[in-house]
Design goal:
By secondary structure, this protein is mainly alpha-helical. The protein is built from two helices and no strands. It has one domain. Helix 1 runs antiparallel to helix 2.
Length: about 90
């Protein structure tokens, strides 16, 4: 294990965070589109005129919700952490 300076550690943490957030969105897309595939296979041989699941609504909605949550957390996360810990901004005069 090699010693790293602060800036290289911050860069490594940013890369890890980006991969974690992308993995979060991909996981929910996988779950959503998997549910759509299950519904498609369930209704594939339905009678004529019956419901056939063709549009991947669950996957699209799950991906949009996960993307929105990830974006909001990315933008508001530091403020929320500081608020929850009771941190105050230092103002010098």
């Amino acid at each position: 294990m090699t010693a790293q300076d602060l800036f290289s550690q911050q860069a490594a943490n940013r890369r890890s965070t980006t991969l974690l957030v992308a993995g979060f969105v991909v996981f929910f897309a996988w779950i959503g589109f998997g549910g759509d595939l299950g519904l498609y296979l369930l209704t594939e041989h339905a009678a004529p005129g019956a419901y056939r699941h063709t549009v991947p609504v669950i996957g699209i909605v799950a991906t949009l919700v996960a993307g929105t949550l990830a974006w909001f957390s990315w933008r508001q996360g530091p403020k929320r952490v500081l608020w929850s810990s009771g941190a105050w901004e230092l103002v010098t005069r």
